[in-house]
Design brief:
9 helices, about 220 residues
């Protein structure tokens, strides 16, 4: 069965010095970018395996300068790829939701910081979205890792939400409520943002995942 949902991945090209800068302070720019590339590829693999109607990536950054550029480019062949548009992250998220909505389905959006995500989990979240006004996947740092919406009304509410803060999840919930949308919560996951996150996320990744193998190889 194909679930009539578009999965949208909002991603940043894993360019050394620009990707995962907090990790780079300890690991170095190239190792941090390698982990970002592994996380992105694991995420794209999970989305590609999910039985959804459409798949889109909203991408920012110079892919030609990224780690694993050729592998990422090959993987992106299975996705509709659009550039991110906007002056800040909230605006880029809202615009990406609008772009994905043009494919004609409800939009389930994730980032590239949860490489432990699986096709089964994404499918379950997509099915929840079909029965709900919106779905929100909280992150353990107070943000969120997944947001599912049916139209641009909810997406536009993101434009005023401060992103990457400890209260981003709560503020997003409030913004959706102000837009008249009930919020259905799904599983909480942990993002990879700082060093302490790596081991915890690695332990949740499927056997054989790029992130799990790379994190083990570099000893974190």
């Amino acid at each position: 069965m194909t679930v009539p949902v578009t999965v949208l991945v909002v991603a940043k090209a894993p360019v050394p010095g620009l990707a995962k800068t907090r990790l780079a302070r300890t690991l170095g720019a190239e190792a941090a970018a390698d982990l970002a590339a592994a996380a992105l590829l694991d995420t794209l693999d999970a989305v590609a395996e999910a039985p959804v109607a459409a798949r889109m990536v909203a991408l920012t950054g110079d892919l030609a300068a990224a780690r694993c550029a050729a592998v990422i480019r090959d993987r992106l062949a299975d996705f509709t790829v659009v550039p991110q548009r906007g002056n800040d992250f909230g605006e880029r998220l809202a615009n990406a939701h609008h772009d994905a909505g043009c494919l004609g389905y409800p939009v389930l959006q994730i980032g590239m910081d949860t490489p432990q995500v699986t096709a089964a989990l994404l499918t379950a979240c997509a099915l929840r979205l079909l029965r709900a006004d919106s779905v929100l996947g909280p992150a353990s740092d107070g943000g969120w890792w997944l947001l599912g919406l049916h139209n641009g009304v909810g997406a536009d509410s993101l434009r005023t939400v401060p992103m990457s803060q400890s209260d981003t999840g709560a503020r997003t919930q409030d913004a959706l409520a102000l837009a008249g949308l009930a919020v259905d919560f799904v599983a909480e996951l942990r993002d990879v943002d700082v060093m302490d996150d790596i081991a915890a996320v690695r332990a949740c990744c499927p056997q054989g995942s790029r992130f799990r193998n790379l994190a083990a190889a570099i000893g974190v």
